[in-house]
Amino acid sequence: MTSTSTPPGTHPTSRPPLRLGLTLLHLAVLGTLGWAVIGLLLGAIGVGIGMLFLLGLGVIVLLGVFYVLFGLAWLEIERVASLYDIPAHPLTWRPRTEPTFGAYLRSLGANFVHGRMWAALGNFLLATIMGAIMIGAFRSMIALIIASFTPLTDADTVTTAFGIQIQSGYAPLLLLLALVCAGVIVGLLFLHRTIATAIIGATARESDLTERVRTTAVQREGAMRAAEVERTRIERDLHDGVQPRLVSLGMTLGLAKQHIDDRPEQAKELIDEAHTSTKAAITELRQLTRGIYASVLDDRGLDAALSAVAGRSHIPVNLDVRLPHRCDRATEAAVYFAIAEGLTNAAKHSRASEARVTVRMRDDDTGRPYIWARVEDNGTGGAAVVPGGGLDGITNRVVAAGGTIQVDSPVGGPTALEVSVPCAS
After folding, report:
1. Signal transduction histidine kinase subgroup 3 dimerisation and phosphoacceptor domain: from which residue to which, for each copy (predicted)?
2. Phi, psi values for residue 283, rounded to 5°
3. How far apart are CA 337 and CA 327, in angstroms?
4. Which residues contact 270 (CB under 8 A, 6 or more apart)?
5. Which candidate, 321, 373, 310, places its Cα nearest to that of 347?
6. What digits encode the pLDDT tens for the residues 380-417?
7. Domain boundary residue among 224, 245, 262?
8. 125-150, pLDDT tens digit by residue?
9. Are residues 230 and 141 in the same domain?
10. Which of residues 189, 205, 224 is at a domain's end?
11. Is the pTM of this model over 0.85?
12. Does residue 198 lie within any of the structural domains?
């Protein structure tokens, strides 16, 4: 299965004439409505300050103004990002960490010093000023063009924008001034683009770096938790499975050694029993090492490894794997263990009678390939992520590999597990 994606930086509105037209429209709106918004906000701030000593009502007004400013900054970032196709993350409110009033005040303080918010508001103010200048230049251009034809009328002067009067009868000069106004308009369009992309683009890069650091921290935490869960599982399997069998094997060989002279037949039976126990222990050790990492992944790939898992499953598995090429080892291992654990949960806990596994390779919006897998069963559902459980282990592995996981398991079933893990570049 293949999918198409739009290369980064391209957009249907990226054609210069349409982009300039949209910028002109944006500045025209900001040049008119922007000043009204600024006037209302300044008036609200004045009212809030004036009412500070009136039963504290001013605090409520100022708090409302702050929320409006934050929303205005969010809208400005979205406006510039959509207009110039900038991959900017939306402005997000920094929530409080605890359900207390002190935590709420700390959240307000953290959002008040949010650099992206003030940068976006500064860009809004500059765009409003440029919009007002552009409207004045546009009115002047129209007035000058009309004035160039006043020799055909009885008018002696013509009034342009900002109340400037120009003597009529100088058509070439008036047309030249109209061209200057047109140049000012075009220059403002490009100036707005330069300033807006510089301000919003810089905050977008800062936000992107912050998001990468957060993602890296989450992946690191997931890897540590996955390693801890895996270590606990190995210890449990060794303690509950292989270790008792080896202890029993030692005791059996000890009894055989005691009776090898006086009761050779009984000693022979004990040795045969020890031999059987040895083969069973070897089988358990192989299964344990297969749970740590499936060597067939390196040799034959994800399709063959999943076929082996489906063959060992206690319930019938409908396997549908379509991968045009191999992915990196970490990605394939994360997907493999997610599917293997999902099938194990389906067989042990959901009382399912059958399961279906679908694996595809897709491309994200940037053209980067990732493996998408879905495990479905017809069991009773009700699966939940609990610390140290199977789904918790899957989540930790997938997050550590930079992927995402989604579990849909309503009570009564069915259960669907979806994982998406990007391939390393």
Report:
1. 230-292
2. -60, -45
3. 15
4. 252, 253, 255, 256, 259
5. 310
6. 888 777 666 667 778 877 877 788 888 888 888 788 88
7. 224
8. 999 999 999 998 888 888 778 777 66
9. no
10. 224
11. no
12. yes
